[in-house]
Amino acid sequence: MPKLNYNSKVVFAVRNVLLLLSVGEVVGSMSVSSSLRPNIIFILADDAGWNDFSFHGSAQIPTPNIDALAFSGAVLNNYYTSPLCTPSRGAIVTGKHPIHIGLQHYVIRGDTASGLPLSEKILPEYMKELGYSTHLVGKWHLGHAERVYSPTYRGFDSHYGYWLGNQDYYDHTSTDAGYWGYDFRNNMTIERPAFGEYNTDIFTQESVRIIQQQETDKPLFLMVTHTAPHSGNEYNPLQAPQENIDKFQDSIEDENRRVYAAMVDKLDESVGRIVAALGEKGMLNNSVVIFASDNGGAPEGYNLNYGSNWPLRGVKNTLWEGGTRVAACIWSPNIMNRVSSDMMHASDWLPTLYEAAGGNVTNLGQIDGLSLWNTLTTGESSPRHEFLYNLDDIYNNSAVRFESWKLIQGNISTLDFDPIPWDGWYGHYPYNTTVADLVPQILGSRVATALQSIGFSLETDTVKRLQEAADIKCNETLPEIACNPYAEPCLFNIVEDPCEKRNLAGEESTLVAQLLALLNSYNSTAREVIDLSHNPEAAPYNWDYVWTNWKDYL
Ligand SMILES: *[C@@H]1O[C@H](CO)[C@@H](O)[C@H](O)[C@H]1NC(C)=O
Ligand SMILES: *[C@@H]1O[C@H](CO)[C@@H](O)[C@H](O)[C@H]1NC(C)=O
Ligand SMILES: *[C@@H]1O[C@H](CO)[C@@H](O)[C@H](O)[C@H]1NC(C)=O
Ligand SMILES: *[C@@H]1O[C@H](CO)[C@@H](O)[C@H](O)[C@H]1NC(C)=O
Ligand SMILES: *[C@@H]1O[C@H](CO)[C@@H](O)[C@H](O)[C@H]1NC(C)=O
Ligand SMILES: *[C@@H]1O[C@H](CO)[C@@H](O)[C@H](O)[C@H]1NC(C)=O
Ligand SMILES: *[C@@H]1O[C@H](CO)[C@@H](O)[C@H](O)[C@H]1NC(C)=O
Ligand SMILES: *[C@@H]1O[C@H](CO)[C@@H](O)[C@H](O)[C@H]1NC(C)=O
């Protein structure tokens, strides 16, 4: 294994060399294609588990549209995010690790006075510079205390959706920080007509409307950040239309899991409709479509939604693989039929998509993200060899990765109101049918049909081969060695032991020291956490029971 003597300067120097290399590739690809920049459609699920999509090996919740997208393009099987919504979304839009934007601790609350620092230039702003129309449909969760933090002041031409972290799927009220209020906007206007409509449906309709109305001489950047399958408000956490719940009447016994399955089913339908709309508009053959979760599912603990990260360890809001290694896939006409094991981090999307759009990644300045566009399109090996899971000195936990090695330490259970470690393996739902039985559904899905009509047809054998390749299994014969991260760092070889069962810290003390040094070098670059203190002025009862940009009105 390579020597681990990185300090941050070396890391940045190595990255700059890589950036220069990828610039060369841009020159090459731009000279062959002078046509319109590709449309970029980024569909983000909220708190969906690793095991909640049939492309990962469980047929319990069939997701034929998402599977068709994944198997026609690439399953991103080694993709990592932060274990919580705000930091993951911050990394996606800035190309920076949350420790470099002050979002490494918990999430932005309804009564937080700040947001994603205004000094950051974000993805839609970069896309606008390249001539894109930019639209956000769905959740924001990166700050709203002043209007300048909100989406339409940060590069989005329009926003239809909500500002906080979770809400009721039908009445669009959000409970947060002990308060309750309406949270739905059309740009800055409070959107009352949305009341009573199911989020996944209205976000899909708005996305389809945007696609239909797109001027086809202009490229589209559309982010669809679904509520699903996040839990709703505490008093009614699992919500889906009855007809979708009924589809699972015979196959899923657990009532909560059945509603969760219906939430995922609606999500799959949404992906089908959005891709079909791109096809009908003649845009699909020049589009990049991404589907990803923001962090792991919550089969237990915080924001419990009955998702499943099986066979990965842990839950949302933990630095175990179940919280951070998440379901994701990408399709473009240049990415074909692969399961990618290239290491990728949420911060890589900004440079990857900027390069896909024909931008010069040197314009992005000093970021943490690396462009994987070349890796994804040509199969060249990933430029990424390491990443920081997170480093949170308030909760006192951290985890870092170098190649296959992961070090994890500290208080992994992080919430005063949820102090259980959640360090086990949850959400194992044995199931009768196998994913191979889903092949006809996948081939008959809206996504497969739309792709076929532009010349990309999926074959049964390809699907079966990729289903097999995307299914991560624990090595049941690997002898377990317990880990107590509260007492001392644990070390895992994630490639050989994706389920984190064999703690090798005792056997590999040199590696432990090297990974601790790597962690220290990241730590020396961390910035202070943004001010997350509570502000009663934000409470919706002060503002006609609406969550608002309260600081603008004081
Ligand atoms: C990208 O930017 C760098 C630095 O400004 C420049 O040297 C390089 O020529 C640019 N590449 C392209 C393709 O414009
Ligand atoms: C939101 O902004 C977009 C782009 O400026 C505009 O087309 C749309 O009409 C606006 N919606 C509302 C409700 O103001
Ligand atoms: C699995 O198969 C058995 C026997 O055919 C049946 O009784 C059971 O309901 C099935 N379970 C599921 C989850 O489909
Ligand atoms: C995509 O399809 C449209 C309409 O079917 C066609 O006009 C266009 O040339 C195609 N573009 C590419 C890049 O194949
Ligand atoms: C933080 O976690 C480490 C283990 O990683 C432990 O040794 C240390 O005592 C903890 N610090 C506090 C303040 O709890
Ligand atoms: C971990 O943090 C939780 C929540 O702050 C706290 O209740 C618990 O005592 C901590 N555990 C240890 C071992 O420090
Ligand atoms: C599982 O672990 C055992 C024991 O270390 C090892 O011999 C075997 O090769 C591993 N199997 C796989 C598929 O990695
Ligand atoms: C990070 O550095 C700070 C001092 O700047 C220190 O208090 C903290 O313990 C360090 N955290 C880790 C995980 O090394």
UniProtKB/TrEMBL annotation:
Q: Does the keyword Endoplasmic reticulum apply?
A: no
Annotated Pfam families: Sulfatase (PF00884)
- The name on file for this protein is Arylsulfatase B
For whether the record's keyword set contains Glycoprotein, the answer is: yes
Matching CDD domains, A to Z?
4-S
Extent of the signal sequence: 1-28
Which family does this protein fall into? Belongs to the sulfatase family.
| Cofactors named for this entry | Ca(2+)
Q: Mention one GO molecular function.
A: metal ion binding
InterPro entries per UniProt = Alkaline_phosphatase_core_sf, ARSB, Sulfatase_CS, Sulfatase_N
Q: Which domain of life is it from?
A: Eukaryota
